[in-house]
Amino acid sequence: MSVNLGIPAVRSSGEGNLFAHEKFQSAAKRELKNEQLRANLRHATHTIRDKRLNVVSELPDWEELRESGSRIKENVMARLPELLEQFEAAFTARGGVIHWANDATEANAIVTSLIRATGETEVVKVKSMATQEIGLNEHLESLGINAIETDLAELIVQLGHDRPSHILVPAIHKNRTQIRDIFRAEIPNASPDLTDNPKELAATARAYLREKFLNAKVAISGANFGIAETGTLGVVESEGNGRMCLTLPETLITVMGIEKILPRWEDLGVFMQLLPRSSTGERMNPYSSLWTGKNGPDGPQNIHLVMLDNGRTRALADKNGRSALHCIRCSACMNVCPVYERTGGHAYGSTYPGPIGAILSPLLTGITAEENSSLPYASSLCGACFDACPVKINIPEILVDLRAQDVEAQHSVRKAPTEMDVLMKGASWALSSGTRLKFLEKGLPAGRLLAGKDQRISWLPGIAGGWTSSRDIPAPPQSSFRDQWAQREKFQKSQGSQQSQQSQASQKPTGKQGE
Amino acid sequence: MGAKEDILSRVRVALQGDAPVTDIPREYRQSGTMNQDQLIDHLTDRLVDYKAEVKVVLATDLQGAIAEFLANARSVVVPHGLDAEWIAGVADADVVTDSPEAPVPVDQLNATDAVLTSSAVSVAESGTIILDGTPTQGRRAISLVPDQHVCVVPASTIVEILPEAMPRLEPSHPQTWISGPSATSDIELERVEGVHGPRRLSVIIVKDA
């Protein structure tokens, strides 16, 4: 009989592209200065959210679908060991091979060895958050394997040596002229006369990638769903690049987070109504592919799946934050978020931007990891993300919980008394006496010196720095309320004596009535 | 095997002490209310919205409708189980049959103008046509690589909402769900039809004669 010690020996924290390397607050400050980005984002998020509202209002049972979706995911988390084993049995029975990866390093090593076994040095890729999370492209590149992104936006980002800024429309921060310049510079055989017409740009990408699709021997994908009872994998997309990758090459390697499981075939009927409407605001995305292992001469002959943890079990262990794993990567939350709309996706640092990223990244890595502790503060807690989420993830509640975890973590590393204690003692001393407060208020004009041209203070020294690290303070007024009150009294008194003189004067007829 | 055990053991530890799982409520619509004419109208409306071309015909006019859509195709590929009558009206094009035993090479598919297939199930509400790899629909590659896809939808295969379609589908068959032609909105959110899949989707809805 084995004894369960309750502490798994292997590390469980997420790694790869999950870390913000800079505090959100300072990254946001820089990104806010990018006017092009803000204009593009505003247009994009507003357009998508309006489309989404239209198609959601078409469904009389939208709330019932959300409720079922949410409860199916809850059910998945609670039954995960059993469902994962059921999925593995069904997938394997149909000729697929499953590999398990604790973290990004292991997943990258598995994919690399699978590619090496084919002898290929170039692979085509379907857009996938999981492979971006583990930094697969960078890893393969360092080993001399060229992974070509085939989603148009991902291709733009890859050719532009850039990073995605949105999980649905990763190149939304680039406008058409910038894209034309990237294509002219980076796509061999691109016409020097290429204009910035989106049709022409798409045709250029089509011609460039078609040759790759027809010759590729290995493809890499993520998966939107894995169905436990049947062993089926599913990918939703728009352009057909996914279909090309999933059906033409000989070898298909899929990387999927362990939380992507759905118990039953019929559950797909719920999620395929929730996902497209929430993400692109369409009734259905143009193409979805579903495959269950090998299918004779239809599709790849070597079917591999890497089951990825990379911090998911850590997030699962957080009972308050666990529901972040319900996320189906639709991006509805970022399209309604006032913070995301202004800062853009790069400010979040991690693969997952926006409200979901602000909870998912720290849950996967742990709140103490690098700069990820700043992410739960990247929110006004307005609640729009909760309303928009098709699987009802209570993002604001999890944000508050993670802030509490962060404060606790900070407390444990600091020496007593805390800054807060000192501040509170000081405030109590000042506020308990009118004379003391009056004396302190004399210092207000000095505070104005700290404010910038925009009349906002975004940095305070010493113990007050904790406050300004995540918010700006309006510059203090020229003078205190007391002083202004005293001024007003004085003014009214002098006005009062003048007025009584005037009112006496007005009783005399002047001959200029109604003036 | 090591990683699998590590992961499952961490999952079990994470779930320790949790309350038992409750049933999943499924209060959403499980069946539609439309009659066949309404289903055809609804599906047509959705498909046209996606910029697909749609013809609604009686079974007796199917051959003519196919010939009209394929008027400009010089070469057409068909799956081996397709009714030979369907393509008989297309006189001017080379017709190639794809089968599991003799799959058409991808280079040849790339040089082929059009593909003609049937379909398994269609969902009116979302404008989705589902192909399931059976002999009237063929391998996934044939409906992907040529530039035009002419797809026949028998009226009896149309359902109103997705939950009605799920039990009609066999999960072990590879499936392609098609809602309009290939499209992208990645450049300034301006929709462009036809990136990598067929640029033209031509749908023929066949009413019972």
TrEMBL record, chain A:
Domain 4Fe-4S ferredoxin-type: 324-393
Domain LUD: 84-304
PROSITE patterns found in the cross-reference section: 4FE4S_FER_1
Region described as Disordered: spans on this chain: 468-515
Keywords in alphabetical order: 4Fe-4S, Electron transport, Iron, Iron-sulfur, Metal-binding, Repeat, Transport
Coiled coil: none
Gene Ontology terms, MF aspect: 4 iron, 4 sulfur cluster binding; metal ion binding
Keyword Phosphoprotein attached: no
Biological process according to GO: lactate metabolic process
Any Pfam family matching the protein: Fer4_8
Composition-biased stretches (Low complexity): 493-507
Highest taxon in the source lineage: Bacteria
InterPro entries linked to this entry: 4Fe4S_Fe-S-bd, 4Fe4S_Fe_S_CS, FTHF_cligase-like_sf, Helical_ferredxn, LUD_dom, LutB/LldF, NagB/RpiA_transferase-like
Name the record gives this protein: L-lactate dehydrogenase complex protein LldF
Source organism: Neomicrococcus lactis
From TrEMBL, chain B:
UniProt-listed Gene3D superfamilies: NagB/RpiA/CoA transferase-like (3.40.50.10420)
Signal peptide: none
Residue stretches making up the LUD domain: 107-206
Pfam families, per the entry: LUD_dom
Name of the protein in question: L-lactate dehydrogenase complex protein LldG
